[in-house]
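Fold this complex.
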Amino acid sequence: MPILRLAIPSPLRAEFDYLPPADMDEEQLAELKPGIRIRVSFGRREVIGFLMAVVPSSSIDASKLKTALEILDPTPLISETLVALCEWAATYYQHPVGEVMPAAFPPGLRKGRVHIPRGDPGWSLTVQGKGLPQGALGRSKKQALALKILQQQGLTPTTVFSQNNISAAVLRALRDKGLIQAELLKLAPTTAQCHETHELNSNQEVVVDALIQHLGMFGAHLLEGVTGSGKTEVYLQLIAHCLRLQQQVLVLIPEIGLTPQTLQRFETRFSGSIVSLHSGLTDGARQRAWEAARDGSAHIILGTRSAIFTPIANLGLIVVDEEHDASYKQQDGFRYSARDIAVKRAHLENCPVLLGSATPSLESIYNAREGRYKHYLLPERAGGSVLPSILPVDIRKQELWGGLSSTVIESVRETLANGQQALLFLNRRGYAPTLQCHDCGWIAECRSCDARLTVHRRRGKLRCHHCNASQHLPHQCPTCQSRSLMTAGLGTEQAEEFLRQQFSQWPVHRVDSDSMTGRDAMQLLVDKVMKGEPCILLGTQMLTKGHHFPAVSLVAILDVDSALFSADFRGEERMAQLLTQVGGRAGRAEIPGQVILQTHYPDNPALLATVQMPYGEHARQILVKREDTGMPPAGKLLMLRTDSVDAETGEQFLLKLRQQVEGRLPATTKLIGPLPSPMQRRAGKFRSQMLVITPNRQFAQFAAAELVKIAQTLPLGRGMKWSIDVDPLDTF
Ligand code: ADP
Ligand code: ZN
Ligand code: ZN
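Structure:
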C-alpha cells in the first residue's frame, strides 16, 4: 500500500505519513501528484494538508498510520515547479514546509474550499473513446454523430452539440459508457494591447535588448538606474514584448501604498488583464486574481511580497522593483525574502528576473560584481530632468520652529511662491516621541516594552509604537502630580501643526500610517498632489517610496540625525538608500530640485559620503568594509531569537543550544551571544538572541540545519518560543 507523505500546517518541522482513503484503486493512486490538497485528521483537528510525495513505505508501522479523509483535488492546483519552490524555501529558511505550502494558495482554498476552475463546459473523448473506430456506434445515429464531432474537433463546447441537435441525454449515455468526459474549455485568450510608448534612450535600449535575448532562460539581471532614469519604462517595454509572446509577467513592488499609482501606470499602458495581489484585498478578490494568474488569463500580475508564491501558468519574466526595499523580507513567522525567492523561482521556471533600483542592495551589487547577475546602468534621468543638488544645513545652536530651521522655512516659502510643491520628510509619526515631567523627571514608558510612549496630541493619547498599547494623555504626572508635563522630540503631528500656522494659505498634507487610513486615502492624496497646485507634503517613509510627484521641487529631511547612529551593520547602507530615495522625489520634471538635510553632525563621514558621491560609489565603499568584517553580503548571517516570560529562560535555551552546537560547526562559523535583544522587553515578553556569522551560503545552510536540529530537541521553558532567521535584515 503506497503512503501519502503530507505537509501539514503546523510548527513541527516534519512531513506526515497517511494511508490513502480506502476506496481508491491503484489507477487513482497513480494519478496523485505533489501539491494536491488532502483533508486529514491531525491531533484532534481536521486540517488541510498538501501532498508532497507518494512513497512505498513509512518508517511508522502501517497499523499506526491514520487514513486520509478526503482527496480535495483530482489534479494539483499548483505546478510541480511551485511545489519545488516551496520545498526549497522551507529548507533554505528552515521553516516547516507545512507553513510554506499554504503561501501558494488563497485563504479559501487553504481552508479546504472546493476549487471550481473557470471556463466553459465542454466534452472530450476518454482513452476508450479515442480507441473506438469511426462508425462503431452505428445503431445510435446521435451518439455516432457526437463521437464523430469529438474525433474531429477534440475538446468541444457543449453549445456545439446542441447546435447539432444532440441532446444532453445522448451525451450522458456516452459518458456512462466511459467514452467521453466532461471537461472545461480553457478561457479564450484575450490579447493585451500596448498603447503609446516612449522612444527608449540608448541606455534603456541596451537593457531591453539584452533581456529580450534572455527570455526563455534563467538569468538574474540588475538594473541600477538613478531615480527617474526610466527603469519603469524599461519594465513596461519588456512586458509589452512578453505579452506579444503570450507570456505572463510577475511584477513585485514593495508596498501596498504603491499599488494604486503603479497599477494606474500599467493600466494606461496596456489594455489586457492586469491583476494586483496585496494584503488589502478581500478573500474573494484575492482568489479571483490568483485564479486568473493560475489559468493564464491575467497578463500582468502586480503584487507585493507574498505574490511571489502565486501560481502562474505561463511565466515569462519576473520584475522586482525597488529590490533593495526592506518590505520584501517578512519579519515574522516564515521569514523569507521575496527578492531572493524571485531569483530562485526564475531559475526553476527558466525565465529571467530583473531586479531594479536606484539604490540596489549591497547583496545585489555584490552578486553583480561576482558575475552572478548581469548588470546595467541608467546613469541619467530620462526626459532631460537633472538630479537635485543636496545641501546639508548645520542646525547646531539654530532656533527651530516645529522642527524646521529658518533655511527650510524660507525655502518652503519660496517653493510655494513659485507655484511648486515642497516635501518634508520626518520618519516619526505622532506629536512627540517623549512625554516628560518637568518637576521630577518622570518619563512615560510602555508597561510591556522597553520603550517610551509617543504623544498623539490630536487624539489625546499616549501610544506605544511597538505593541500598539494606548492610553489617555495624562494631565498630571503620575509620580509627583505636577501639571508641568512637557514633550520632547519631534513627530509629524507637531511639524504639521506649525506648518498649518505658518503657511495657512496653502494646503498641508500629512502622510503617515495615522493619517492614511482607509483603502483609498493614498490614492486620493496622490490625485490631489498630481494636479500640481502648490502644497506641502509632510510625511514618513510612506511618502518616499516610488511616488512620482512632478511638481515637487524641494525636499527637506528634517531629522537626518536619527538615521546616522544606527547600531546595526546595515545602518549606513540604509541611510544612503533612504536619503537617495527621498532626495530622488525632487525635481522630477522640468524644474530642477533641491534637497536640504538638517543635521547636528555636518561632518559625519557617512553623511558626507551620501552627499558627496553618487549612491553607487558610496555603496561600493561600504561593500569593502563588509568584506573586511565578513558581514553580508561577503558573509552570511543567521539569527536565533527567543521570546519568553522572563529574561533567563530564553538566554538559558540559547546558551544550551550554543554549547551543543559549537563542536559541530567549523571554526570559521562564529557565534555571538546569547545576548538580550536591544529592545529586551516587547509586548510583555523578554527577548534574547544569538547571531551566527558564516563565511558563505553553504556554511550558513549547514549551521542553520544543525542549529534547528538541536533546538528541536531542547526543552522549551514555560511560554517560550524560539525562531531562526536566515539572512536577517538587521541584527536586532
Ligand atoms: P524610474 O522608474 O527610473 O523612476 P520612470 O520610468 O518613471 O523612471 O521615468 C521617469 C520619467 O521619465 C517618466 O515620466 C517617464 O515617462 C519618462 N521617461 C522614461 N523613459 C523615457 C524616454 N525614453 N524618453 C522620454 N521620457 C522618458
Ligand atoms: Zn513628576
Ligand atoms: Zn509597548
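The longest helix spans residues 647-662.
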